[in-house]
Amino acid sequence: MLKAKSLYHLIVYSILFIIVLISFFTFIIIDNAHEELQEKIHTLKIDYTNNQKALIKNHVNYIINFIDYYYNQNKDTKSVETIQKEVIEAIEKLRITDNRNEYIFIYDFNGKVIQSSVAKENIGKNFLNVIDPNGKEVIKELINTSKKPFGGYVDYVWFKPEINKETNKVSYAKSYNRWNWTVGKGVYLDEIDKLVHIKEEEYNEKISNYTLQITSLTIMLILYSIFIYKNATILIVNDVKEIGKYFKESQKNDNPINQNRIIFGEFKVIANYATDAMNNIKLRTHMLEDLNKNLEYKVNEKTKELTNLIESQKQFIKNSVHEINTPLSIIQTNIDLLKMKIPNNKYITNIESGSKIIQYIYDDLSYLVKKDRVIYEKEYLDFTTILKNRLDFFDEIAKSNSLYFINSIEDDLYIKFNNTELQRIIDNNLSNAIKYSYAKSPIFVKLYYLNDDEIEFSVATNSQKIENTNKIFDDFYRENSARGGFGLGLKIVKDICDKNLVIIRLDSKEKETKFTYRFKINEDTTT
């Protein structure tokens, strides 16, 4: 790598670099122009071909429509042979161009020429077995293609009288099934060579202009560099040295720079800025040292307070979870005893519903407390049985909210998953469905095989539309704060699904919301 030991060397290196750089860019510009030309030629060929295809297709469809219309108008008064003869005469007069290379041809399905504007001597002859230089049976392929519902195109090589040689041609053919006619029109593609030649001439002219402009620019830059080298370099170097000398001396004293020793006014301004900057730097350095010491002390104090607060919150949740378990078990046991003595009592049903809600909240809190300390191992689980059991658990809660479940659950669906995490996914979705459904509406629960590797679990409700679907899985977010809850349930679900590569899909409309979860049957990878 070249190292400039002085400004003089830098100017010389700059001139050499400019020459190399301009040569490099000249090559790039010419190369890009060539690539641009090739792209334009390619696009031109495609556009021209597509445009010609569209024109001949429109013309053929126009002729087909004309034939059908003429037949329907005269079928009751004239014979088919008379109508066909009049149609052929009309088609000859309906030519939309004077170009003798663009004409309508008609064959019957046996290959006999019915109409040919430019080769009338061929009318009545059979061309079914005619092949082009590439061995393609042209007429047979045109007839077969025309029998398709919308007709089609055929590419082949055909003799062009105008240039007295064979060239590429494309034709569109469509059948008129009532008379077993194949109606078609073709267009030669050699016209595109003329357009390509025009583009190549434009390219050569553009390259010549580029070369002239780049050469002129190179000469101007070199002359300008030499001027700078001769007239300004020495003066600039002297001013720079003077400013550098000041920075060295400012470390020992606070004397301002001597501006009489500087020539250029711009450098005098820089010198003033340098003096102010050095003074401000020294002043702010002392201020920052004092401020940093004060901030460091305050940050340490606040960090200790926040750490203690977080630990207190974690301990509170742990204690709360532990303390809830015993009285919750007592409540559930006594509810079971009351149900045995007083069955079908709505008050007991409401109490049981409330206790199950507490049980569901307890399970969520218990999972949050343990999830970072416990490894949830996977095993093969009977998803069908677990889902049915959880539906039984939430059935009383649904009834107390004037709701009911409609489920479609396939039997014997097994997946490799953790039981606790699977229950948290099911419980949070069922709980949210009960919480946000309209009264006296059904909750649709489905579980079924999607394919050999996946099963799908979904919960759909009649409820308000979720406006912020991107936030619904965030911590403490609740779409409707009036319905209670902590906003943690779907966050727990999202974390479990992400960890186990479960795909979540949320569809929410004006009166229906559906959560869908796609599980891998044998997924054994966690992220």
Automatic annotation (TrEMBL):
Superkingdom, natural source = Bacteria
| Protein's recorded name | histidine kinase
Topological relation to the membrane, as annotated:
Multi-pass membrane protein
Q: Name one GO biological process term.
A: cellular response to phosphate starvation
Q: Return the Gene3D superfamilies for the record.
A: 1.10.287.130, Histidine kinase-like ATPase, C-terminal domain, PAS domain
Q: Which residues form the Histidine kinase domain?
A: 319-523
Cellular location(s):
Cell membrane
Show the GO cellular component annotation of the record.
Answer: plasma membrane
Q: Which GO terms describe its molecular function?
A: phosphoprotein phosphatase activity; phosphorelay sensor kinase activity
A Pfam family that this protein carries is: HisKA
Look up the EC number in the record and give it. Answer: 2.7.13.3
Please provide the record's keywords in A-Z order: Cell membrane, Kinase, Membrane, Phosphoprotein, Transferase, Transmembrane, Transmembrane helix, Two-component regulatory system
Database matches in PROSITE patterns = HIS_KIN
Chain segments annotated as transmembrane: 6-30
Q: Which InterPro entries match?
A: BphY/WalK/GraS-like (IPR050351), HATPase_C_sf (IPR036890), HATPase_dom (IPR003594), His_kinase_dom (IPR005467), HisK_dim/P_dom (IPR003661), HisK_dim/P_sf (IPR036097), sCache_2 (IPR033480)
Record keywords: Transmembrane helix included?
A: yes
PANTHER family recorded: PHOSPHATE REGULON SENSOR PROTEIN PHOR
The UniProt catalytic activity note for this protein reads: ATP + protein L-histidine = ADP + protein N-phospho-L-histidine
Q: Does the keyword ATP-binding apply?
A: no
